[in-house]
Each structure stands twice: as C-alpha cells, then as structure tokens.
Design brief:
141 residues, mainly alpha, 7 helices, disordered N terminus
Length: 141
Amino acid sequence: MADRTDNLTSGNLLGIPETRLPDDFIDVQVTAELEEGDPRDIAARHPESPLAWATLAQDALSDGDEVAAYAYARTGYHRGLDALRGAGWRGQGPIPASHAPNRGFLRALAMLGETSRRLGDDVEGDRVTEFLREADPSLLG
C-alpha cells in the first residue's frame, strides 16, 4: 500500500512505475564531452544521444534557425524514445528528471515543444506540454 500512496502523492494515479534510463546511458558521457567539445562533433560520434541533439537544437535557436532547431529537437526526442523503450517504458508513466540519465531526453522533449510553438504548431506544443506533465510535473513549475 505504501507504493500506491507514494504514487498518489506524486501525481501518478495509475501506479505506473518510473522509467529510468540505465546509469551508464550515453548521455552521462555526453554531458562531460559537451563541457569542452563541439556539439556537432559529439552528435556525429554519438547519434543515439538525446542530449547531443537537444544541445544542437538550443544552439540553432540561439542562432535564429528555428527550422534546424526543430529538426534537431525531433531527432533527440526520437532517439530518447528508443532508449526509453529499451529501458521498459511502454508509452506512459513517470520519467523523473531527478535521474540524471533521463535529462537529455527531457531536454530534447522540452526543445521540441519550444520549437513547435515558435513554428506556430501549437497542437504539437500542447501535446509536448502534456507529455512533460506526465513525465515529471516538476519540469513545468
């Protein structure tokens, strides 16, 4: 019963267990590489890294290239979905940001929402907001 109570207080009303990417997921290594490396080179070496693609999306937005930012964010989102499915995720339930290996996917997801809205795709932006709310409500403030 304690698990169910914990799920209720955390907003997880269905009692679906959290999905946590493995502790040695590539984004752990990519985080360190991004401190000194070029995100383009890192994405080329680690195309499976949602964090590398999310970083490229942020850089493209900073450069004013919303279309490239959207493409990078969408790539990171899909690479993250692949990883989550490999970790047992079945399309719903918490993906806590408190678990460092999950953060690259969540950042790519947030960038997908941001770039979708900037391109006028509010339907996609709303869908992403709901996905973020289900994944980890603390991300929405």
